[in-house]
Amino acid sequence: MARLKDVGFAERRENATNTRLALVKKMQERLASPDVEAKLAERHVIVEARNQRIAIKEEERRQEEARLAALRAEEEARLAAERAAEEARLEAIRQEEERLREEKRKEMAARATSRAAAALAELTSARSRDSRYPARKQARQAS
Question: Does pTM top 0.85 for this prediction?
Fold first, then answer.
């Protein structure tokens, strides 16, 4: 019984091997035929053309990315220049406002000094009149 199993197994293995060999031989014959060679050459040409189209598209994509990067850089530079100009303009306005505040402060100080000088002159004038006219001094002090 065991021997029958071994014989069956060996037969099946031999049949499978023969089948594989027959398939390989058939494929070799097909590959050797002129039709198959022409088809393979045609397929090779098609694959090469497809690869070239892919390479061209990839190059176009890279060029477009480079163009977009250049546009982005140009836009960023323009925005930076605009920001710098705006900051310079705002700084000039701040400086002008500061100058005007300082000018106004000086003007107010000059007015205060002028009023103080006028008040002092008035007081000095009043004192000199009072010394000449004691009755006026008494009337002024009474009021």
Answer: no
